[in-house]
Specification:
The protein is of the alpha/beta class. Helix content is 33%, strand content 14%. It folds into two domains: 74 residues, Rossmann fold (3-Layer(aba) Sandwich); 114 residues, BRCT domain (Rossmann fold), CATH 3.40.50.10190. The longest helix has 11 residues.
């Protein structure tokens, strides 16, 4: 069956490793990832071939995205859709990829996506007592993330987010969309400073 719901996907066919929200969301379910050559060969031979003979091999994309596909899939099996377990991840409304894409990836990995508008009365989650399987051994479990870019209407939300987070003993992290995509593709949380946005990153013309 051809399905569009990643949660119902047993096999994921792609020409190469893709950084699309459907590919990334599907990874969370640890499917068997095969080349689209499998489909082509089945049709050409008019026979159902063995998917395992067409496992996707893409070292070029693995190098570009700094992942190992077999390791990502192994991590996904261990995570069991809980990479972002218990996390509320905030996202600015005007993010260029669309909040629906962010939500799809976050929810596939057991988290909750909240559109952040800095309105009065905004509630933050209680501090977590339990780490998810993807949490690092350091204090990243105390981080609260806001996915943003550097447009003026987004940057003006940052001070209020920091104030709210710090007021409830969270460590505010304002991050690029790359943070979410990279964590979900690797199926592990691996914090690097390159993901964090500060006012120094805001273009002068904005």
């Amino acid at each position: 069956m051809l399905v569009t719901d990643p949660s119902k996907c047993s096999h994921l066919a792609a020409p190469q490793i893709l950084r699309t929200h459907k590919f990334i969301s599907a990874l969370a379910y640890a499917p068997t990832v095969i080349s689209t050559e499998f489909v082509d060969q089945c049709l050409e031979r008019d026979d159902l071939l063995e998917p395992e003979d067409f496992l996707l091999q893409d070292t070029s994309s693995e190098k570009r995205f700094k992942i190992s596909l077999p390791k990502s899939l192994a991590n996904a099996k261990v995570n069991a859709n809980n990479l972002f377990k218990g996390r509320m991840i905030y996202c600015v409304e005007s993010i260029h990829t669309g909040t629906e894409v962010m939500q799809s990836i976050i929810e596939a990995n057991g988290g909750r996506c909240i559109v952040y508008r800095a309105r009065p009365g905004t509630q933050l989650p209680p501090r977590r007592g339990e780490k998810g399987p993807g949490d690092a051994e350091d204090d990243e479990a105390d981080a609260l993330y806001l996915i943003s870019a550097t447009k003026k209407d987004q940057v003006k939300l940052w001070p209020r987010f920091r104030q709210l987070a710090e007021g409830q003993k969270w460590k505010p992290r304002i991050v690029k969309t790359d943070w979410l995509l990279d964590q979900a593709m690797a199926q592990e949380l691996r914090w690097q400073g390159k993901y964090e946005l500060t006012e120094a990153d805001v273009p002068a013309h904005d």
